[in-house]
Design brief:
This protein has about 230 residues and is mostly helical. The protein has one domain. Helix content is about 50%, strand content about 10%. The strands form 3 sheets. Strands 1-2 form a two-stranded antiparallel sheet. A two-stranded antiparallel ribbon has the order 3-4. A hairpin with a 2-residue loop joins strand 5 and strand 6. It is globular. The protein starts with a helix and ends with a helix. The relative contact order is 0.08.
Amino acid sequence: MQAHANRYDRNTTPHGLPWQFEHKYDTLLKNWLTKVKTNLDPFTDLVPHEMDFASGKISEGTRGSSISLVLLFLSDLDLDFAKQQFANYKKFFLISRVGFPTIREYPLGKEGKGDIDSGPVVWDMSFPGTILSINTFCKMNDFRTATCISNSIENLGLSFVSHQQKKYLFGNYPMADAFIAWSRIQSVSQMNNQNSFTALLRSAIYVHIISLVLIFLIAIFLQKISTW
């Protein structure tokens, strides 16, 4: 029994690999991590969005929709490296829009259009990257930011309950529902224990007032455009 337990001893695996990774994968994981560390996006020093398999060169730099997910699983493979990546992640991708924290699709200093990976990019925001970041911030013990983002999604995501099912965005995007549900299973208790200024974000009235103001301003802007 003791021998079986030692087989999964976290301290005996390279890079502090979690117990669920058998030792037969140690070399594979170590080589993979070495390649990742030597092929970071030079602009952000983060894991790139896409690599060319044949040449081994970067095809596209870091993007919010992928790095939010990469960091979540990277923390299980090499926690120290993941923490270094997380610092750059916050530097280049964590922003605020109308007082709410969100994740950019493209790093600070760069712009781009949405595609099949990111969906529409509005005001630089990455919707999948923001949803997935809840897990990422929880894994890095930044529960305050995770709670703020979670509450923002809850209040701005037009959520409703019907037939004991909770849906967002009027129920038109089931993939969004799935990702939001998955993101909320990570350290829910720690998120719920946050009682700082996030209580303000929990107020639907506050959020809806901001939403109405934004809709009003957009309507005025569209009206002016139509008269040009």
